Predict the structure.
Amino acid sequence: MSAIKSKTELAGVCGVHRSTLYQWLNDPAFPARTATGWPKAAVLAYSKRKLAEAAKHQTGENSDLKRMKLQKQCALLDVELKRAELARESEALELSIQQALTVERSVMIQHVTALCQIIQDAFAQAVALTKVQTGDARMVKIMENVRNETLKRIKNEIEAA
């Protein structure tokens, strides 16, 4: 969720004049400013509460119009609050997806590492059997070169992924 950085932006988000904003800033119930600014969701909720309260207490000339305007501002703040909630949920979902992908990648790396070990063991057995059964040093050397090249290619592919 984004933070509101300036008082001008804060007044705009709240939908009030700066003089009203300064009155609200003196209210202990107004959301506290953090290192990154005022928390937008908390400011929207506070603004909606204050404007709804103000709508109830409108009297005098054009009070119906003022009340309607304040109620429409509250409805707009409701939309902004829902948008902020959806943004938070979207961020949380994105984080969950990233974590799942990280875990899945980690598991895949474990499987590939195990497969590489199986390949390495198979090559080692093949080289040993060739030594014992044929005694052909040239064939053993060729098999060792094939093993080393294969393992190098596997390692390069894993590092590239």
Remarks:
- Strands lie at 3-4, 38-39.
- The first helix runs from residue 7 to 14.
